[in-house]
Each structure stands twice: as structure tokens, then as C-alpha cells.
Amino acid sequence: MRNVFVACVCALAGAASADVFSNGPFLTGTGNGAGGANTSAIEQPAYNNFGYNTLTGTFAVADDFTVSGGNWSLNTFKVYAYQTITAAPPAGSTITTMQVAVFTTNPIGTQNAPDHGNLVTPRTILTNVYTGTYRVTATTLTNDDRAIMAVTADVSDIPDLAPGTYYIAWSLTGSVASGPWTVPVTPARATDNAIQRNVGLAAPTNWALVDGNGTAAGVPQQDMAFEIAYDLIPSCDPDVNCDGAVNGFDVEATEQAVNGDFSNFCQATADLNGDGAENGFDIETEEQRVNGAPC
């Protein structure tokens, strides 16, 4: 898991702001694939997996992400997946359903049920399009068997998530026999820690860390490529210096933070009004809160 914030659409003061969390890239080459397409190449020889089986009812994958800066109100969830179709340029996506669930703790070993959503009920798919990229090896860059699709589902029914670390899990179905397969983050990173469920294995071992190379020991794990679009709901604790009291010192700490000095400011951001900027309006917001105004 890696925090990468790739977009922000600023809202009116006092409202939430729309953001996108990206768990990492998968593109490794531009215009060097079949027909001028982009490529996502396996990092051989350390890795040998094109993707990870995510077939609903048999497999699922999950990865962690961290909520920060306030509560997150989830909107959409996007994954990157393919089905192997030999020598067939993509006429359209063959992914047909996506199921999504959220765990508040790592399901490895615990076998706990998802806290929100499930891996059975299909989500409403909002977009389902070819990315212009093929999953390939470094020696077969023009292979066109694995066209990567970007599949986006509605997850707005999931309750707002408080700051902390969560696992988001998903499974897919498709119209052909292969997979579907979820594309990993490429290049891999030392902190990668995605997990996969195989219902054919007995509990408590049916969730396990993914194996980037099933034939070699000691290979680093991998993460899955996904994006979460959410609205950030700034935290509303006027005790911004965490001294246990709400008074003028909190206003002073906010003024210092807005001017770049966070030494007396204990919250994740000084954007207290959620408008996407840290400025005098945030000081005014803190003054109002100290004087009893609601968030």
C-alpha cells in the first residue's frame, strides 16, 4: 500500500472535497505495444505473474489503504483487470461484474467477515473501458492477449470511514473462461502487501499474501493497482493543539499552522473548512468553533 493522491476538486467552504487515492501505477511502456498500445511488463526474472485470479466465488484479492485528514466518504472504486483472449484486439471489455467489500482489520488468519459490503453481490459498474494497455513480458512487448480494462464500480453505500487503515477486497466475473485477473502495481515496491483469497483452501489459510513468483523463494510481495474516489470530510475537533482545552491557544496554533509552523498543531491538516487551501479562512473557522459554532 502506498498513499498517492492524484486529484482534488475543491468544494465550497465548509463542504467536503473530492479526491482520488491511487495505490500505484501499472504502466511501464508508452506506445511500444501491439498496434502502438502501451504496455505493462512483468518484472522478470524476479516476478512471473501476469496478474492475480479474482474470479468471484473462488478467488478474491485485497489491499490496504489508509484514511487520513478526516473521514472519507467513498464514491467509486476502480480496478485494472484483464481476461486472456489469444490474438484478439479488444472490441470491448469482457469484465461483467465486480463485488467489493471493506475490512477494518487484515483478514489473514482472522477469517472475519467484511465490515462493509460483500464479495457476492454485484456492484453497479459505472465505467468499463479499455485502458490502451496490454499486460506483457519484456520479451513479448507486442503480444495482445491481455488487454487491460479499467472497471469502476459505485461504492457510495459504504459508510464513511474514520481515519485508520482498512483492507478493500474485490472479485470479478467475465464473459470468457480466463480469470478475470487483477493487474499488480508495476514496478513492485518493498512495502507491497496485497493478499489473495482462495476458497479452495481450508480456513484460516485461505487468505494469504500474494506470491509474485510461485517458483522462487524470498520474492517481494506485490500490491494491486486500484483507485478510490472519495469526499474528504475534515475532522471537527476544535482542540487543534491537543492540550485538552478549547480556547484561544487553538486559534493561535491554527494561525501558526496556516503560516507553515505545525509545531503546536496536532491535526493532519490546517484546512479546517475543507476548501482545499490553508489560509485565513481556516483561522476564522477555528475562531468560530472555539466560540461554540457547530462544524
Mean pLDDT over the full residue set:
88
Low-confidence stretches: 2-17
Q: Give the overall shape.
A: elongated
**Rounded radius of gyration (Å):** 22 Å
Percent range of helical residues:
under 10%
Profile the largest sheet: 9 strands, mixed
SSE order, one letter for each helix or strand: EEEEEEEEEEEEEEEHH
Number of strands: 15
The total number of structural domains is 2
Spatial gap, N to C terminus: 32 Å
Summing up helix and strand content along with how strands pair, one would put the structural category as mainly beta
Strand composition percent: 25-35%
Number of discrete helical segments: 2
Which terms would index this structure?
Type 1 dockerin domain, 295 residues, elongated, nine-stranded mixed beta sheet, 7% helix, 2 domains, 15 strands, 2 helices, disordered N terminus, six-stranded antiparallel beta sheet, mainly beta
Word description of this protein:
- The protein has 2 helices and 15 strands.
- The protein is mainly beta and 295 residues long.
- It has 2 domains: 16-231, no CATH class; 236-290, Type 1 dockerin domain (Orthogonal Bundle).
- Strands 1, 2, 3, 4, 6, 9, 10, 12 and 15 form a 9-stranded mixed β-sheet that branches.
- Helix 1 packs antiparallel against helix 2.
- The model is unreliable at 2-17 (pLDDT under 50).
